[in-house]
Amino acid sequence: MELATTLTGQTVRNHVREVGINGNHWYAVAWAKDLKPKKILSVMIWQQAIALYRDSQNQVHAVENVCPHKGVAIDKGQVKGDTIVCGYHGWEFNSKGECIGIPYWNSSQKLPCAQLRSFPVQEQYGLIWLFPGDPTLAATQPLPTMPEYDDPDWLLIPVGAHFNAHFSICNENTMDVFHGYLHKNLQGWFDPVLLKLRETEDSVTADYQVSYQGPITKFLGLSEVGDRVTTQTISVDYRYPNYVNNLQGISSLYLMRLPIAPHASRSFTFMFLKIRLPRPLVNLLRPVLQPVIIHLLFLRFLRQDMEMIESEQENYLKDPQRRYVEVNPAIIAVQRLILRQYETFVRSQNPSQQTPKSVYPEVSAP
Ligand code: FES
Ligand SMILES: [Fe+2]
User: Fold this and answer.
1) Sequence ranges of the domains in the chain
2) Which fold has domain 37-119?
3) Which letter does DSSP use for residue 298 in this model?
4) Whether the CB of 89 sits within 6 Å of ligand 1
């Protein structure tokens, strides 16, 4: 559905700062390189502790990080072949989470029914993806597609970040192209105009017109001459729970959001840049270009965003009843989507439950 691109002002409904996630999607939970053979990696997804490990075939498995015997964190144990063994009494669990051995158990006796909850998990694009909701729906939900990932014409810049903020605040920052003001000293972008706004059941897409000027513009190939103003259209696509931003074949950004807790989120970002240099030269420069771009460009923007995002969260917590005013309809659409997805998930878990009283953003008095 096409939406209006202007808004006179709408108050933000506080509820969006408190809602949970729709678990019936795939979430990036870790960099694949961080999960070493024979090691257990603990991660959090929306207040749920998960233990990841690889079996003898290097296949990734995900189980709840809580031993069903006494509740000890299972990541204090070890990986033994294809099984995971709790560090406290040595109970052993297979990849389905079934208890298949207790060291002090009489082998003639039937083992107790102790189940470690397991989750659908897969490794793709250098990330570990987890499906925290109804496992029977995992096969019906796709992962984001990243055609640039295996294309040598694109330079991949992977960046991870942790924010002390609810995922709605982080996601609004990503949709909010009007905050170019914050990055003015980095010569980011200016004069944004929202051209087009569309929403579906699980996405919000906004096309913004933005202008660029300066050396970064030249480096990214946005203009031949850095001091000339270049105007381009950027498409920001929030496909719950992740983002895809596209700048006319010059750069693409995939931002995978991991909600950890009510005031904590992570992001796994892939920035792809089309480097206009001969491929052998790019391959030669790749190991140098990646850290240079991360430190000199990406992290400088990220630190500025982080400061604002965490300040917004802090002030929300000081006075959760206070209402704030929004004028970007794309942000209101993002809030609606987050709330709608959460409601859908709550309903799917308990179909007889009534939808909570309208949780949608309310219109302020003129
Ligand atoms: S608490 Fe895990 S085996 Fe006892
Ligand atoms: Fe930013």
Assistant:
1) 1-25+141-366, 37-119
2) Rieske Iron-sulfur Protein (2.102.10)
3) I
4) yes
Provide the CATH topology of domain 1-25+141-366.
Naphthalene 1,2-dioxygenase Alpha Subunit; Chain A, domain 1 (3.90.380)
- Per-residue pLDDT tens listing for the chain (366 residues): 788 777 766 776 688 999 999 999 999 999 999 999 999 999 999 999 999 999 999 999 999 999 999 999 999 999 999 999 999 999 999 999 999 999 999 888 888 889 999 999 999 999 999 999 999 999 999 999 999 999 888 889 999 999 999 999 999 999 999 999 999 888 768 888 999 999 999 999 999 998 887 666 666 665 555 567 888 888 999 999 999 988 877 889 999 999 999 999 999 999 998 877 777 787 788 888 888 888 888 899 999 999 999 999 999 999 999 988 999 999 999 999 999 999 999 999 887 765 554 444 433 332
Torsion of CA 28, 33, 35, 39, to 10 degrees: -170
Find out whether the beta carbon of 112 lies less than 6 Å from any atom of ligand 1: no
By most ligand atoms within 8 Å of CB, the mutation choice from 40, 64, 67 for ligand 1 is: 67
Ligand nearest to the CA of 84: 1
Q: Half-sphere exposure of residue 341, counting CA atoms within 13 Å on the CB side? A: 27
pTM of the model: 0.91
Element housing 233 (H / E): strand 230-239
CB 226, CB 258: distance < 8 Å:
no
Which among 89, 98, 105, 115 is the best mutation to test ligand 1's pocket, defined by most ligand atoms within 8 Å of the CB?
89
User: Can you read off the two tokens belonging to residue 66?
Assistant: 């809580």
- Which one of 78, 84, 86 would you pick to mutate in the ligand 1 pocket, going by the greatest count of ligand atoms within 8 A of its CB? 86
CA of 236 to the centre of ligand 1 (A): 47
Judge whether 168 and 17 are in contact, CB under 8 Å: yes
Contact of 49 with 65, CB cutoff 8 Å: yes
